[in-house]
Amino acid sequence: MPLPAPAIARGYTGESCPASFNIARYCLARAAKETPEKIALIVVSDADAPLESAERWRYGALDDAVRRVAAGLLAEGFAPGERLMIRMPNTSDYALLFFGALAAGVVPLPSSSQLTADEADFLLADSAAAAVALAPGMHMQTDEVRVIDAAMIERLKAHVPLAGYADTGANDPAFLVYTSGTSGRPKGVLHAHRSAWGRRPMYRGWYGIEPADIILHAGAFNWTYTLGVGLTDPWVNGATTVLYNGEKDVQVWPKLMEKTRATLFAAVPTLYRQILKYCDLAAHDISKLRHGLTAGEALSPALLEHWREATGKDLYEALGMSECSTYVSTAPGMEIRPGSPGRPQPGRCVAALPVEGGVEPLPADETGLLAVHRSDPGLMLGYWRRPEEEADVYRGEWFIGGDLASFDADGYMHYHGRADDLMNAMGYRVSPQEVEAALAGHPDVQEVAVTELHVREDLSVIAAFVVPKEASEPDAAAILAWAETRLAAYKRPREVIFVDSLPRTANGKVMRRALRRV
Hints:
Blueprint: H1 23-34, E1 39-44, E2 55-58, H2 59-75, E3 83-87, H3 92-104, E4 107-110, H4 117-127, E5 131-134, E6 146-148, H5 150-157, E7 173-179, E8 187-192, H6 194-197, H7 200-207, E9 214-217, H8 224-236, E10 240-244, H9 252-260, E11 264-267, H10 269-278, E12 291-294, H11 301-311, E13 314-321, E14 325-329, E15 343-344, E16 350-353, E17 368-373, E18 382-383, H12 387-390, E19 394-395, E20 398-407, E21 413-418, E22 423-425, E23 428-430, H13 432-439, E24 445-456, E25 459-468, H14 476-484, E26 495-498, H15 512-515
Parallel strand pairs: 1-10, 3-4, 3-5, 5-6, 9-10, 9-11, 11-12, 12-13, 25-26
Antiparallel strand pairs: 1-2, 7-8, 8-18, 13-14, 14-15, 16-17, 17-20, 19-20, 20-21, 22-23, 24-25
Helix pairs in contact: 1-2, 1-8, 2-3, 2-5, 10-11
């Protein structure tokens, strides 16, 4: 006989977000007033150089610069609610533009510098952005939009700062991020200003963050994981954040942990695995590190145990999505149960609902669709101009993201995969249809299907199963090279497997899950 379902409050029970609310004000105004000389941001370009040579921003100067950029955007004619796409590497200017836009009521669209020109062009057109901040060497179709270059950024920063921040409401549009859509096209996730307030359960329910913390984050700004854990949350709590924008090399992370005296380190499990494999942790003093944070992909019990053995530190995992950030996690003072990302954070209303329909949470240990209550302030406003996609994710008072999960009698969540075919690559959700569409244009490809392939218990890669055209010579390297010019690095398949045919259902639909057994 099944256990009774844990008691679930039907709705978010955390403190309500104020009706008048602006993310930039929430993140910067208090610290700028109370601790203006405290270091808010350190940007490191060379892990081997003295830390004194790194770029540093104090809270007072950071707040001033953000309000200057906001004033500059408004003076240049940008209107509140307009979209501003940002396509730049991890620099302080990226952060200033993002928060400056928020301070002005403009809606920033952070994008990845890894995108190809075609991918970036799609985001620009789909978002109907009024302008794009574009770094040198990055190419796009910008004939019909304004381009914010390095010279214009300097002009923005030279403006007299706004006296305050835009008088935005909690439910006003704040920023737009893109995630893979089930149709194969990336879809925009529009977040309200209240989304930052919706992160408050993480402070104690995941980080255990304190003003004295120094947080080193390994991600890029286009990702909500980095924007939130790397910038928003440290600044709200008056902590110091460190970001690295130098050459990619796994060896830099232990160096930076030691050099910055980092107390918290945030990354995806894949990077922790690489650090353990390629770095000599014993050669670095990481004693100041209290624990690591991990999200974006599942943390395997083996990796957790290996990290503990090598460092004596814990890893606290969180599970989330672009539509709501993280909402299930482990935290300091909480038991870590290997194989579970934890429990719903304090105040969250999270449940497993029957796959076939219904709005009543399932009993303990029964698998269903993972759902977040619609009253959660961290939940998105909606999908940008995709009402047809929203119909599939809302069920009554619940938002359903497509993950299968169960909760045990103690409230710990256990993940059982996705109800659809979306893949997880280095923490990014990737649509197989998007990758398939890119590969289908190769002259030697007759048919192609893409899926996530588990090569080890704790490691999976994107694999392309290709039916080659008759008379063609199967060449995996050529197909991978084709993908390199058409897809961002994290979307590209790591393996090409040639097959005679693709497994299909009776009505002709490709069975991607069956490919994993080929």
